[in-house]
Amino acid sequence: MSDVVAKQIGPPGKRARRTRGAPPALTPDCALFLDVDGTLVGDAPTPDDVHVDAALLRLLPRVAAHLGNALALISGRSIGGVDRLFPSLRLPMSGQHGSERRAADGSFHLNAPDPVSFASMRQLLQVLSDRHPGLLLEDKGNTLALHYRDVPQLAAHVHRVVRSSVRHVGGNKFDLQPGKRMLEVKPGSRNKGTAIAEFMREPPFAGRRPVFAGDDKADEFGFAVVDCMGGWSVKVGTGRTHARYRLKDIAAVRRWLAEPISPTSSESGGAG
Question: How confident is the model at residue 231 (pLDDT cuts 50, 70, 90)?
Answer without folding.
Answer: very high
